[in-house]
Structures are given as C-alpha cells and as structure tokens.
Write a structure and sequence with these properties.
Length: about 300
C-alpha cells in the first residue's frame, strides 16, 4: 500500500518543531512515509533567529522514507503556506497528511490516517480525516465517527476533496443572508464559527481553517474523527501564529488506542450531540494578545 505523504509546516519554534517531529518518528509507519517540510521565511526581524535554528534542525531529521525540505525565501504566512503546500501534494500524490509545528501525535496516528484515507478515498461526502478528539466519553461501537465539521490539528484529505477549498470564501454571503444556515454552521449555536468567518472576511484574522470548514460545510461534507484523541496541541503558550487562547482541555494520548473499526454508514454519527456538548470554551491568552499588539505597533513605525 502506498503511504500518503506528510506535509509539515514550520516557522520559528525550535522546541515545538522538535517535539512534533520526534513524535512522528515514533509512529509505526514513519519509515514508510515521505515527509515534506515547508519552512516559512521570517515575517519580522525578531523571528529570524528562530527560523534559522529551526532550519538547522531540519537538516538533521531522519527516520522517514524521505525528507524533503522547502525553505521559502519570502514569508507567506501560515494560511497561504498551508493552502499552497496541501494543493501541491494533493495534485502530485492524490492525498496529504497535514501537520503544523506544535502537534504531538500518538504512535498510531499515521496508521489511522493511511487506513482511513484508503477506506474512504472514493466516498465523495467524506472530505477530511481528523486526528483530534475532544474530552468526551463516546458510547459507540466503532473506533471512529463522522462529524459535520473539520479539525485543524493533524488531519488529511484527498485531491478530490481539496478541490472544493475556496480561499475566497465566496459562500460567506449565503450564510450572511440565511439565519438558519448560520445556526447550522455554528453547530446549532454551540460554537461561534460564523464570528470567526466574519473576522476572516474583515481581515482581522488570516485562517485557512475557517475557509476550509466553510468549503466542507457548503459541500455537505463530513470529517472522520477518532473516538479518542491521536493528536495533542502543544501551542497554547502564546507562541503560535493564531494562538489567542490560553488552553483547551485535552486528553493525554492513550498509547494503546488504535482505530481498528470505522463506520460503514456515511452520515453524521448519533453521538454528535455528545461531542457538541464537550466542545471547549476558549480562554483568552493575555501574553499572546500583548505580543500581537507589540507586533502591530512595530509595523506602524
């Protein structure tokens, strides 16, 4: 079986990058997987040292079938970098497993991703394989379930699904004019995704994830989630590009959990309500806000 390539997007966080890579190296299928690393250039002078240190580390990485490093000469920003990188790998290989530089994975993460990509590759409604799961006890027979929203913490997709990605978010007007559609987009009013989309459209944030979710939502798409988390986010320390919250409650990774059984019915799981009730409430990260304010002040000088 061909293994899907891994796209890893890194910037200026050496410690986080190392934790992400070392966890991937411990994965069962690491030695059979091609790793493509997209290293963005510094946006501000104070990011240059971190970028240089990260790039020095990248040259030491082994443990994969191949390691391919793209060192960008100019800063693209995370959203543009992910959009371009995922598009490139999907067009070349037909699918991609997508990682950012602050994610710790279970040793069974790649095993799950590849198995699910293979199983649902021809099911048009399945548009993403997600590696994260919220802190919730699910009473389901299978080891995974379908949900009507995407995840940005360790995920995978196919070329056929990624072609629906609309970076311009042209469907925004439909939601703006339809209160019922907005409520569905907000998961029955349980999560304020539309507010994030408004922030994207007004230029307050630059998020590939909210635009990808809109694309999946308007396609009536689904994402497959594991019953237990196979990914943890290490970036709630104010170091992330878009990290404006202090923490989400996360489960420890269960080293014994594997996704063996997957749903045969392609539809939203009946356990969806339990997941909705477990959605975390973000808490503001003051250090991140102060850091961003200083960056804005420097740009205005």
């Amino acid at each position: 079986m061909n293994r899907s390539p891994i796209a890893l997007f890194v910037y200026n966080r050496p410690w986080h990058t190392r934790q992400t890579v070392e966890a991937l190296q411990r994965n069962v299928l690491a030695g059979e997987s091609d790793l493509f690393i997209f290293s963005d250039a510094p946006k501000q002078p104070d990011a240059a040292a971190g970028v240089t240190e990260v790039r020095a580390y990248l040259g030491t990485i082994g443990g994969f079938k191949s390691v391919n490093i793209l060192r960008r000469g100019q800063n693209m920003g995370l959203a543009a970098s992910i959009s371009a990188g995922v598009t490139e790998l999907c067009e070349t290989y037909g699918s991609a497993i997508v990682m950012e530089d602050d994610l710790e994975t279970s040793a069974h993460f790649l095993e799950y991703m590849n198995a699910a990509l293979d199983r649902y590759k021809n099911d048009e409604r399945v548009m993403q394989i997600a590696g994260h799961m919220f802190v919730v006890r699910l009473k389901i027979e299978e080891d995974a379930l379908f949900l009507p929203f995407i995840s940005s913490w360790g995920w995978a997709t196919w070329a056929r699904a990624w072609r629906h990605f609309d970076p311009l978010a042209t469907g925004y007007e439909r939601l703006l004019q339809d209160a019922g559609l907005r409520k569905r987009f907000d998961l029955g009013g349980r999560y304020r995704y539309f507010k994030m989309l408004q922030a994207q459209q007004s230029g307050k944030i630059d998020s590939w994830a909210i635009r990808w979710y809109l694309s999946v939502f308007l396609s009536d798409g689904l994402a497959l989630y594991p019953k237990k988390a196979l990914v943890r986010n290490l970036g709630f320390d104010g170091s992330g590009v878009n990290c404006a919250v202090s923490d989400f409650q996360q489960s420890d990774l269960d080293p014994h959990f594997r996704v063996v059984s997957m749903p045969s019915v392609i539809d939203v799981s009946r356990a969806c309500g339990a997941v909705y009730r477990a959605l975390p409430v973000p808490r503001v990260n003051l250090s991140s806000i102060v850091r961003r304010a200083k960056q804005l002040l420097r740009r205005g000088q």
